[in-house]
Amino acid sequence: MQTILSFVIVLSILVFIHELGHFLFAKRAGILVREFAIGFGPKIFSRWKGETLYSIRALPLGGFVRMAGEDPEIVELQTGSEVAVELDDQERVTGLFFPTHPKYQSLPVKGKVTAMDLEKDLFVRLETEDGRSLLYDVHPQAFLYRDQKEKTQIAPLDRQFSSKTLGQRALTILAGPVFNIVLAAVLFMVLVKLTGVESKVIHDVVPGSPAAEAGLKSGDVIRAVNGQSIRDGDDLREKVQQSQGQPMLVTVQRGDQVFQTKVKPIWNPQIKQYLMNVRLEQQPATATEVVVKGAKETVMWTDRIFEGFGQLITGKIGIQALGGPVQIASITGQAAEAGLLALIRWTALLSLYLGVFNLLPIPALDGSRLVFIGLEALRGKPVDPNKESMVHFVGFALLMVLMLAVTYNDIMKVFFSQR
Q: Which residues form a coiled coil (predicted)?
């Protein structure tokens, strides 16, 4: 239960932040946002606020912000439809009610739609039962009411995603992944603030390690490497990597004594780094260190994510190495059991992965939508919306097939790997 609860909470936070990015920039551009949803499938909770439906859906494996005009608009109202209209004090239509809605019978103005334009000129013409022709202006925020639970706001052209500038559309799509990357950076900064930074003081030395062979001990202060001063643990780690395994002349202070000793780092193939195998003491981080260290962690893990993508493309690792919802849930549960710091780090990594992955030019992902916007900029005209929608649909279907395969791998690894 703890694993499931931790997974749902963490994933919901990441999805919320991602969709919040899309939502805020869509609103900033004046785009009508029809729905802000966390999860997929049937709605288990929904509430209208303003012109947007906020909903929580049954499957907590994602979410979406549904913007008017992002995909071809489906016109629910057709000529020949029977409707009743609700008017404001300026005689503008604010609501069009179908006969299936309980309010239909109580409205005095009813008729058959003979002409309409709900995107540009905003009007509707009705023919009443007694043969009269009535022409009404339509309010730009009018709703269509099919039944008591469902309503749809009309989307004039200037409120549609497709009518906005290339820059506005690109920023709206880009904002989702960027918000996830920013969240990851913030969480890494929180970790630095909570744990501090490594000092130059050795906490302990691994027995039999290069540091132990060089005579280093707990409490020693590393002052310099090859004549270059050491500021902190990151600085020492950088010098160790630069050595490429060659012996380093390390200046050490032990009490009042200062001496030099040679240390030859060894290669660790698991983490792909050279190591002295010492653990340094932690010290409180300054505000500058919090920001710099958090940013460095974000860049380092981004590099590792892209390295993993590259290995997947070149075949160095197979699909069996991929993790899906089951494995993510399992690791999230383990992180929650390990404590707050472990859970924050894992959430940061997940958020960073979600942001970076969504920027890839894979159909149905944000990166693919950015590619189509880029093509429009190069061609001087948009790609046929129906063709673009088909590309995203096929891409989504393929991702679902991949998800099923990865989930099968997850189940085998998580539940049957020790049998």
A: none
Q: Which residues contact 251 (CB under 8 A, 6 or more apart)?
A: 222, 223, 224, 225, 227, 258, 259, 260
pLDDT tens, position by position, 105-155: 999 999 999 999 999 999 999 999 888 999 999 999 999 998 877 889 999
Answer for the pair 122, 90: CB distance below 8 angstroms, yes or no. Answer: no
Structure tokens at 360: 């890839």
Catalytic residue among 19, 70, 119, 297: 19
With beta carbons less than 8 A apart as the criterion, state whether 183 and 17 touch. Answer: yes
CA distance 287 to 130: 76
First to last CA, the chain: 23
Lowest mean pLDDT among 41-45, 74-78, 186-190, 407-411: 407-411
Q: How far apart are CA 121 and CA 74, in angstroms?
A: 18
Helices (H) then strands (E): counts for the chain = 9, 16
Q: Model's pTM, two decimal places?
A: 0.81
The 3-class secondary structure across 288-356, one letter per residue, is: HHHHHHHHHHHHHHHHHHHHHHHHHHHCCCCHHHCCCHHHHHHHHHHHHHHCHHHHHHHHHHHHHHHHH
Q: Mean pLDDT across the chain, nearest whole number? A: 88
**Whole-angstrom distance, CA of residue 112 vs CA of residue 187:** 57
Tokens 């990851």 identify what position?
Answer: 184
Contacts of 237 (CB under 8 A, 6+ apart): none
Q: Give the span between the Cα atoms of 31 and 16, in whole angstroms.
A: 19
Max Cα distance, the chain (Å): 107
Cβ atoms within 10 A of the Cβ of 207, count?
Answer: 9
Report how far residue 8's alpha carbon sits from residue 360's, in angstroms, rounded to the nearest whole number: 25
Q: CB burial class (10 A; 0-12, 13-18, 19+) of residue 144?
A: buried
CA–CA distance, 204 with 135 (Å, rounded to integer): 85
H runs (alpha helix) in 140-195: 166-195
| Token code pair at residue 364 | 């149905």
Q: 19 an active-site residue?
A: yes
State the burial class of residue 264 (Cβ atoms within 10 Å of its Cβ: 0-12, 13-18, 19+). Answer: middle
- Residue 240: which of 207, 218, 209 has the closest Cα? 209
Least-confidence region, from 30-34, 243-247, 314-318, 413-417: 413-417
Which has the closest alpha carbon to 124: 151, 153, 94? 94
